[in-house]
User: What shape does this take?
Amino acid sequence: MNKVFGVALGILAAVGGFVDIGDLVFNVSAGAMFGYELLWVIPVGVVGIIVFSEMCGRVAAVSKKAVFDAVRERVGFKAALGTLIASEVVNLMTFAAELGGVAIALQLLSGLPYRWLIVLAAVALTGVIWAAKFEWIERVFGYGGLCLLVFAVAVVKLSPDWGEAAAGFIPHVPQSDGTVYAYFVVGLLGAAMTPYEVYFYSSGAVEEEWTPKDLGLNRANATVGYGLGGFFSVALMLTGATLFLGRGIEPEHLGTIALGAQVPLGEIGLVLALVGILFAVGGASIDTVFSGAYNLAQFCGWEWGRYRTNARAPRFTLTWLVLLALGTLIVLTGVDAVVLTEYAVIFSVVALPLTYVPILLVANDEAYMGRYRNGRLANVLGFVYLIVILIVALSAIPLMILTNLGQG
Amino acid sequence: MTEIDIALKVLDHQILDCDGRRCGNVDDIEIEGGPDEQPRVSAILVGPGWWPQRAGWIGRVARWVAGNERVRVPWEEVADVESGVILRKSAAELGLGRGDDRVRPWIEKIPGAHR
Assistant: This one.
């Protein structure tokens, strides 16, 4: 019974940790621009991240390889080095965006100056990562992120047209604004399938010494965690649709997103939304700096690990400290966090095939995986998503330029 | 003697010392033997100093960032090849993991480094 309880708590934390700044920005904006028309993209993205994570977790459990171990062994040194550089750049951008989000949420809660709060947020995150046990970090930020459930309550109060919303889950082509619509499809998929999530997940699996016995847990974690996480995305998009569509409001600021809970629920709604955003993007900041350190350490063969003491993995520790400092400097330049988020999501889409393809190959390789290689379902889904990911990766930058970041 | 696929199971794999410490990846492999001889693996090569010969200009740029450390570990020191390459001795004895050893004292100066 205790074990079931533990798993449930873990999943709850994962659900709370699902949402990051990319999900917040793209889901609410998509609702504000296109109403219910893009709802169908959410399940497509959620199934994509489930497929990707399930493969990564299985590879980790069977072959003891985290993502960048597998990438380097599989595609060779040179291609892996290119992949590493691309991933680290995207990862740093994502971290900077999340950190900017933390500072904005703090500013809206406290009214203190933004720049001071950037520094405060960076120092606080460093202190938390340095001193706190990882189990606690994960739980606290995960549970805090559950405050975002306030958006689900807000949606019910705003009473959207449920019939029309249901119709939004059927994929369709829009009547107008085709390129902007396509840009949002790409952005929503990118926000759902953020690569740092799988680096983080697979490294954790290696560190917790998963074996093939844990494959059931892996499947449950991936499907239930991300599946329920998708529920938040739906709530955010519906909020954007019911509140902002047709009013010419585009959520260019995180504060506008929090308004989505304030309008129907008042002050308490606003505070819960901001606290939820704070913990969600705070947790994501920690995941992203760690992911950057994992990738480099695995590529170079250094000691690494979130459950290790700082001194037992010195260069890993140094790497996340440096990444945290670099990200802080990026945010301190005054770059807009929401614009940075859009760039981070679009570039992460471009880099997605670089890690997806090797993992798909390894998960399918009998020499690595033996009888745990991809079954028929994993393979069909794996190859369908390969095509989806390639199309999305190739079209991301042209769409970003054509639509001027979705401005039309 | 067991058969090992060097390209698939050794090259680019994690190296673990006799205490299970992660101490580098196999960055290249040294092979001995002339045209008429049976080629044999004589050593594994570890460190960013070997990167340029694996990856051309991008490897040179990476070496410039990571430093020119080169370590040669004779093949006799390899105890086993599992999911990683396992060594008979400790990293310190073989000159591996020096980067971590250099950084550790700095990290240890900060309170709470061993928590």
In short: The mean pLDDT of chain A is 92.
